[in-house]
Fold:
Amino acid sequence: MHSIGTASKRSGVHIETIRYYEREGILPPAERTASGRRVYDEDGIARLRFIRHCRELGFAIRDAQALLSLTAAPMPCAEAQLIAQRNLDTVRSKIAELSVMERELSALVDQCGTHDKHCAILNDLFAED
Amino acid sequence: MHSIGTASKRSGVHIETIRYYEREGILPPAERTASGRRVYDEDGIARLRFIRHCRELGFAIRDAQALLSLTAAPMPCAEAQLIAQRNLDTVRSKIAELSVMERELSALVDQCGTHDKHCAILNDLFAED
DNA sequence: GTACATCCTGTAGCGGCTACAGACACAAGG
DNA sequence: CCTTGTGTCTGTAGCCGCTACAGGATGTAC
Structure:
């Protein structure tokens, strides 16, 4: 049995974040000692790590919660794959958006300094469309 | 002279967002009619479009504000370039993070279905590290 | 026994909007 | 003049996923 501090260190999830997850119902409420302190067993720590991995892969916390609850289902694959695919789509469209930004920004940065009179960056931002 | 609705349509910035920018001091307070309605001239609309372009390029609103105020400076280029370069760095590191996610997620999605017994996605998320 | 670390709850803040509620204002038609 | 419909106003609360306190209780080591 472990304190929240130990669970935090071993799972890589900040203490405040653990409490936040509990408050939000992402995780089941932790057991408590007589004096009211949270206590975590290995499963509890594994769940924290699970959520962290989900977040590192870009899943929304609600999706992380859904995936976690799927681990108790008999045939979780199809559902899990669906959620993962949706997230993959989201990640890819974010990359696409950022790539557009990257191209335009680097063009702007390069242009700047080539014009004597006006700043290319500011000019461009003022353009009609 | 234009109403906020017209300014919104012509700049592509939502009405609520325009008021938000004013509240936050991103934009100078708009002129008002006798009855208290906001009024925008062509310059005001141009400023709104400027902010929108900044946002579309990923600039934080505070940076957008800084860039906007640079348009009144005599030698804005160096400063503008600095802000743009910082933003470009941010955008690039976001792309890098998302690319890692993309690779890992697509591997997971592909793996799923190849194992009969356990879901590869959920297994992976439960892994030690 | 006394420091000091750790934990608790509750609340407020971040960024960048978005979405109301409830009250005024204005233009067009009857 | 009155109604109807649309536009606008202020103020506040919510979204996401935390993060950062304040102020108090509890646990541990010397």
